[in-house]
Amino acid sequence: xxxxxxxxxxxxxxxxxxxxxxxxxxxxxxxxxxxxxxxxxxxxxxxxxxxxxxxxxxxxxxxxxxxxxxx
Length: 71
Fold this sequence. Notes:
alpha/beta; 27% helix; single chain; Rossmann fold
């Protein structure tokens, strides 16, 4: 049986996001897949500072603020 990987996305990259990123890194089978923040550069800074080198930062989410979306 293949081990299931849970992919996590962190929205916002303030202080609590750093704590979450550190906690997720310690959980086997959990990967932080992406980090997003509305402030340019903050998501990338969290990725760099917390050693999430394989993750991506998302900036395209800002374009969704002006659109009507349904989930």
